[in-house]
Amino acid sequence: MKNLxxxxxxxxxxxxxxxxxxxxxxxxxxxxLVDKNPYHCLKTEYYALxxxxxxxxxxxxxxxxxxxxDHVYGEISSIDLxxxxxxxxxxxxLDYDELVIGLGCEDKYHNVPGxxxxxxxxxxxxxxxxxxxSLNNLHADATVAIVGAGLSGVELASxxxxxxxxxxxxxFDRGKLILSSFPERLSKYVQSWFEDHGVEIVNHADITKVxxxxxxxxxxxxxxxxxxxxxxxxxxxxxxxxxxxxxxHGRVVLSPHHNIPGDENVYVVGDCASxxxxxxxxLAEAQAEQIVQIMQKRWNNEPLPDTLPKFKLKGVLxxxxxxxxxxxxxxxxxxxxxxxxxxxxxxxxxxxHNG
Length: 355
Hints:
Blueprint: E1 2-7, H1 11-20, E2 29-35, E3 39-41, H2 46-51, E4 60-62, E5 69-73, E6 76-80, E7 85-88, E8 94-95, E9 98-101, E10 105-107, H3 115-118, H4 125-136, E11 143-147, H5 151-163, E12 168-172, H6 184-196, E13 199-202, E14 207-211, E15 214-217, E16 220-223, E17 226-229, E18 233-235, H7 237-240, E19 259-260, E20 263-268, H8 281-299, E21 315-320, E22 324-329, E23 332-336, H9 337-354
Domain FAD/NAD(P)-binding: 3-283
Cofactor: FAD
GO molecular function: NAD(P)H dehydrogenase (quinone) activity
């Protein structure tokens, strides 16, 4: 019996499980899912957990049960590609025959002094819990600084505004307009929403240093009772330490079939993979479906296609509290109530099909 090991219970590996456990797993294969937590976490909703508008019960999904699926819970220390082993800090090593690395991402601090030590993160469920405890225990009229105005920063700032109307919230954005990678109409709508709801936006920001309760913008100190970092991501440390080819963002360069060049038994899915799109849950799921197709062809000794179809991503949806949102669907900007309802509906459907 050969062992297919899935590292990480994120969106990509959940989709692989969904596909393979639906009568598509050969008799000679079994699957071992490795994760630190005994449940799948809805990372796209960590902002709401940190803001205190939901409990972590709402963003946990139980891993599937199946006779040919084993679960291993532990902290991964490294991957030995030569010996085909997963090494842990808290348990014995695990051998694999085939491997899918889906360990996700961590914050990238851009060598800003003090950023890692003095800011909160929402990259993991544990970190989001800590951020939630700090933010919701703040005294009245406290100041919260959010560094980074991408999707995570925007959603956190808006959700926190609804959760704690008494707080002073400052959102630091490097661009001249918030969400500058989106169409201008959408960016202006989001910026206007923040202005109407009393969230301060600092455009053209350049965070040069962070100290305890102080963030320095262009070397000018700004006091804050809590600082949250949402200013960029990088692949998980375990992946960064692998001696394999990576792109300028530290993501693993893959063959056209999503495996490490020279090792057809090791695939990389999601945030750690070098792909022609920004990392997202949707992209991880689309890539996972192609990985399953390639696996099945290899298991059946069928020829592999020279190229795979381009990913068909449906768009991006973001929330501005409970009643408003924004999105880009089929290149069409959406603002207001509709994108918020769409996001809520998609979240419900995901939990319904995976719970």
